[in-house]
């Protein structure tokens, strides 16, 4: 099984999440990667929805704010119900380290029903996933695609072409089976790579990510395909569609700040000297 982001242990503030090697970021020593942060928050939100017994609802929106650097230190993730109604439930979750919050998330669950009969326009974006026999970059659990080079590793993806990322599931906690919601919420952080990887590596660090889900992904992997990118005065906004081997199932938006002096080589996950 793929190594997990965390293991759990009992601590003074309750059950703690202990970051493992898989949680390490390329932005600097002792930093935790956004995939791990988002996954931990998603797990807390999903545990809360099960605690209140609302398995009749489906997750449709996931928004994460990464407002402090999360470190490779013990942390706790908790969730609270903001509003519960017959057809919806809104849950906030927070990740804390050393007694203060470092990231927060908001999750919206809605009650599925039957679509109305009226005809409405629908987008036609259908990115192709990698071939079934394509081998993922093992240490990164992913493949990269650019319109110049096709599917491959990070080495051939450092260019100015539009990109896609295909990523396999990483367990959140050792010994637990990750859910499809945790897959989608965690992997959403790689929209930053899909949108902002360029000829000098990854020179933007994301402050958030928002994911809207028409359904949950099918299978053990999923991807994001960039649809638009805007950059001005060191601020980047990227949008992407989420897709699996069945088709497109959601959209994502991400805001990022320029951080060129700590640009990351996504092949090695190390800062570029």
Automatic annotation (TrEMBL):
Residues 34-108 form the Acyl-CoA thioesterase-like N-terminal HotDog domain. InterPro entries: Acyl-CoA_hotdog, HotDog_dom_sf, TesB_ACOT8-like_N. SUPFAM superfamilies: Thioesterase/thiol ester dehydrase-isomerase. This is Thioesterase superfamily protein. It comes from Nocardia bhagyanarayanae.
